[in-house]
Design brief:
transferase, nucleotidyltransferase, Spore Coat Polysaccharide Biosynthesis Protein SpsA, Chain A, MobA-like_NTP_Trfase, nucleotidyltransferase activity, 5 helices, 179 residues, alpha/beta, globular
């Protein structure tokens, strides 16, 4: 099934001391490039955040105003594209793979979305495949996306989750790299 990808990469990385998470290098590859490899099969890939050097061409956009949160970023990234499925990933998921993305897309079925759980069993809304129409309706219900929580955006969606996996782990602190 064809899909579009939206990569949310505009956060301030305050718990990493202000270091740009997208450019953190793990095993010789930036976090952003690792996530972009996971969605290589996308019909269209949009990265939401400041333009950075990446290993392949992508489209760039920015939430308005910049720094207004991941829901605003998701809305900005979703604005274009046309595939009925959208894979949404944050740039701080260095262990996510193309196989994970394929499983997420394939397991959507009649659900609004299919997401990864991290190794602690937490739902990762920014590591999921969604039906575009479901996301668009959720954004419409929410109204202004600035500074809104992802949990609130997804509250009414029918989501299915993977078993806990390291591939769903995000990196918020330097200690998270040692898990």
């Amino acid at each position: 099934m064809e899909f579009d990808a939206v990569i949310v990469a505009g956060g301030g990385s305050t718990r990493l001391g202000g270091v740009d998470k997208a450019l953190v290098v793990l095993d010789g590859v930036t976090f952003l490039d690792r996530v972009l490899r996971a969605v290589e099969g996308a019909a269209r890939t949009v990265v939401v955040g400041p333009v950075r050097e990446t290993y392949r061409d992508v489209e760039w956009t920015q939430e308005e105003p910049p720094g207004s949160g991941p829901v605003a970023g998701l809305a900005a990234g979703l604005a274009g594209g046309h595939q009925p499925v959208v894979v949404v990933l944050s740039c701080d998921l260095p262990w996510v793979t193309a196989a994970d993305v394929t499983r997420l897309v394939d397991s959507l079925g009649s659900h609004d979305g299919s997401g990864l759980r991290d190794s602690n069993g937490r739902d990762q809304w920014l590591a999921a495949a969604y039906k575009r129409s479901s996301l668009e309706q959720a954004l419409e219900r929410l109204g202004d996306p600035r500074d809104k929580s992802v949990r609130r955006l997804m509250a009414e969606l029918d989501l299915v989750w993977s078993e806990p996996t390291k591939n769903g782990d995000d990196v918020d602190t330097w200690a998270d790299l040692d898990r």
